[in-house]
Design brief:
Blueprint (H helix, E strand, L loop, with lengths): L13 E5 L9 E6 L6 E7 L1 E6 L7 E5 L3 E2 L5 E2 L6 E5 L4 E3 L2 E3 L6 E12 L2 E13 L2
Antiparallel strand pairs: 1-2, 2-8, 3-6, 3-7, 3-11, 4-5, 9-10, 11-12
């Protein structure tokens, strides 16, 4: 849901969530593809969806709503492949006030934030977003 805007590569970065199943006890692997090369980024999470065009001067759109948590302890470079990956536990999701556990029957929303460039200078951008329903 919530398509991404093209980044400085001319493509839109996109996110994928995968795992054996989506129970709260099974880790979920997040992958962000088609990022600008050798740029920093990290994943964000929220218990609700939303839409904010170009937040903070970003070139992209924030597709999460409510209390947005950041996996900021896992800031990483996209490297020569323009790719980030992180395995997360639904029992330890970040929020602004600390970590929480997803409960069975809940939807959680994930997105990737990354640095980018534009004709006017440094900026940031977002991938599309993905919704994960936990059993």
């Amino acid at each position: 849901y919530c398509p991404a805007t093209p980044n400085s590569t001319g493509r839109s970065s996109w996110i994928r969530a995968s795992g054996i199943d989506s129970t709260v006890f099974t880790p979920v692997e997040l992958q962000c593809h088609d990022m600008p090369l050798n740029t920093f980024g990290y994943f964000i999470v929220a218990p609700s969806s939303g839409f904010s065009a170009n937040p903070g001067g970003s070139s992209g759109h924030l597709c999460l709503g409510g209390t947005i948590g950041r996996f900021s302890n896992f800031v990483a470079s996209s490297g020569a492949d323009g790719f980030l990956a992180l395995t997360v536990s639904a029992l330890n999701l970040p929020t602004p006030t600390g970590s929480v556990s997803a409960a069975a029957g809940e939807d959680w929303y994930f997105q990737c934030w990354h640095r980018d460039s534009s004709p006017t200078g440094a900026t940031s951008n977002f991938s599309n977003a993905v919704e994960v329903y936990f059993l």
